């Protein structure tokens, strides 16, 4: 499953993680993506959506 939201385009972000002794290591932050069945142009389709888009009501779930 792709780690990208089909609605808002939110994806993986990379950065640097610092330990207590301030040593650096690269890491990634992945969004909370769910694969749901939603109405797209009036027909049900499976899409990958972040939980923020689900919660805010940007997506209408297919029943």
UniProtKB/TrEMBL annotation:
Keyword Protein biosynthesis found: no
Cross-referenced InterPro entries, in alphabetical order? Answer: Bacterial_rp_bL28, Ribosomal_bL28, Ribosomal_bL28/bL31-like_sf, Ribosomal_bL28_bact-type, Ribosomal_bL28_sf
**GO cellular component terms listed in the entry, alphabetical order:** ribosome
Q: Which UniProt keywords apply?
A: Ribonucleoprotein, Ribosomal protein
What domain of life is recorded for the organism? Bacteria
Belongs to which family? Belongs to the bacterial ribosomal protein bL28 family.
The protein, known as: Large ribosomal subunit protein bL28
The upper taxonomy is: Bacteria, Bacillati, Bacillota, Clostridia, Eubacteriales
